[in-house]
Amino acid sequence: MPRLFPDVLTTAAGxxxxxVGAGLTAAPARTARILGLGxxxxxxxxxxxxxxxxxPALLVGGRNRGPAMIVRAALNVLVAGRFRxxxxxxxxxxxxxxxxxxxxxxxxVDGLAGVVLLREALRP
Length: 124
Prior knowledge:
Helix content: over 70%
Order of helices and strands: HHHHH
Shape: elongated
Number of helices: 5
Largest sheet: none
Radius of gyration: 15 Å
């Protein structure tokens, strides 16, 4: 995997994490509705706070951003579960199934990028 790919991917993940985290923290009910996330405003805000805590490590974590990408992948699993639960509800958001699929794909991509970055960081 070329060196540029994990760097660009991590920066893009950090930017998306920052934007979504800010929205979920500042306006949790509205942002969750726009995303098709469902659930309570409190749980949406909790996800937003987690995103905001993670974003700096993704954006400016330097050479060792691998652990942050692994955490991002783990958080993606939780978000995918929220989308999946919303899509299973009879009155759930029609966007939720797509959100669950997107988060599943991002989990794999973020996890692989995290592993690549961790391996590079451990090299002498």
